[in-house]
Amino acid sequence: MYELLKKDGMAKRGTFHTVHGPIQTPVFMNVGTVAAIKGGVSTNDLKDIKCQVQLSNTYHLHVRTGDATIKKLGGLHKFMVWDRPILTDSGGFQVFSLAALRKIKEEGVYFSSHIDGHKIFMGPEESMQIQSNLSSTIAMAFDECPPIPATRKYVIDSVDRTTRWLERCRKELTRLNSLESTINNRQMLFGINQGGIYDDLRIEHAKVIGDMNLDGYAIGGLAVGESHDEMYRILESTVPYMPENKPTYLMGVGTPENILEAVERGVDFFDCVYPTRNGRHGHVYTNHGKMNIYNAKFELDERPIEEGCGCEACKTYSRAYIRHLMKAKEMLGMRLCVMHNLYFYNTMMEEIRDAIEKGVYQAYKKAKIDGMNIK
């Protein structure tokens, strides 16, 4: 259940109640594709860096280790020793990103594993069955993510198929939640809004899926090639037609600026690999902009990555030491940079929630963007 606590313009501050505990929104979900955050970050570390929700991927866990095995081991929470919410992506985006290897049919998608090439079929029912086996808190509907650009005709057909697939997902998850063998029989379902960069298709689809009274709603098919301005335009036109009493999730987004702009337009949930991927390459976020820790100017710099930051890296180590670790290709350097970046993102979300509660979100957003020198 989503509890709307405060609005500041379109920005929403809420609490999403789940079987694995409450989620304070707006929230950034830390991405652990294969049930782990890349960079040697443990679940205890995740609690230290204020992670509320961990996101894992249906497709990747299905093809490697296997959802049936994870079910035998008690589900994803027990498997990775995590007692807070987990959202599982349906696998749809990964399937459709393997464009040369897949064939879309009404029943689902036939494709080849990116690991060993073996043939796989996944449709709405299969995606729900895998996610039920994983026993995540929130399951995402299986959808088609159309490419950008795509013709209007292609997008219309794709959106219609996504709607039909959503009906099948809802029916199958209801069945799975009724079974005695299901680990989490209170698994939630989020539907996904599609429509490319066609505002009218996005709005119509938002209305259609909004009437289905799901647990939450995502906006998919963005951050896949369109400009930031196009993404913001789609959010401005579409979010007002999403149910206000349910969380709105912008999938795969994004940079600190993307998040700040999307919160202003009414988005509650975010996920992105940027903070972990950038951290693994020595790019760290600060309130004064993004820093490349490899730069020679940090060789003798005894300051932390950011003064006043509460993460393990900043409380303990210098820029000079972390730079040394990264240049020496020591795993600890990667881990510290990833932990710092996730701490930065999760702290920014705390600040966002506080600013909305106080009714000063616009001023906060401007100060944050100006401070980070975002052009």
Automatic annotation (TrEMBL):
tRNA-guanine(15) transglycosylase-like domain: residues covered: 11-369
Q: Name one GO biological process term.
A: tRNA queuosine(34) biosynthetic process
| Cofactor remark from the record | Binds 1 zinc ion per subunit.
The cofactor named in the record is:
Zn(2+)
Residues that hold Zn(2+) according to the record: 309, 311, 314, 340
Keywords assigned by UniProt, alphabetized: Glycosyltransferase, Metal-binding, Queuosine biosynthesis, Transferase, tRNA processing, Zinc
Sites where the protein binds substrate = 89-93, 143, 194, 221
Q: Which Gene3D superfamilies match?
A: Queuine tRNA-ribosyltransferase-like
Query: Which is an annotated Pfam family here?
Result: TGT
Pathway per its UniProt entry is:
tRNA modification; tRNA-queuosine biosynthesis
Highest rank taxon of the organism: Bacteria
Q: Name one GO cellular component term.
A: cytosol
An annotated Gene Ontology molecular function:
tRNA-guanosine(34) queuine transglycosylase activity
Reaction catalysed by this enzyme:
7-aminomethyl-7-carbaguanine + guanosine(34) in tRNA = 7-aminomethyl-7-carbaguanosine(34) in tRNA + guanine
The record's active-site residues are 89, 271
InterPro entries associated with the record: ArchSynthase1/Queuine_TRR, TGT, TGT-like_sf, tRNA_ribo_trans-like
Assembly and interactions?
Homodimer. Within each dimer, one monomer is responsible for RNA recognition and catalysis, while the other monomer binds to the replacement base PreQ1.
HAMAP family the record matches:
Q_tRNA_Tgt (MF_00168)
Relate the protein's function as given in its record: Catalyzes the base-exchange of a guanine (G) residue with the queuine precursor 7-aminomethyl-7-deazaguanine (PreQ1) at position 34 (anticodon wobble position) in tRNAs with GU(N) anticodons (tRNA-Asp, -Asn, -His and -Tyr). Catalysis occurs through a double-displacement mechanism. The nucleophile active site attacks the C1' of nucleotide 34 to detach the guanine base from the RNA, forming a covalent enzyme-RNA intermediate. The proton acceptor active site deprotonates the incoming PreQ1, allowing a nucleophilic attack on the C1' of the ribose to form the product.
**Family assignment?**
Belongs to the queuine tRNA-ribosyltransferase family.
Protein's UniProt name: Queuine tRNA-ribosyltransferase
UniProt source species = Petrocella atlantisensis
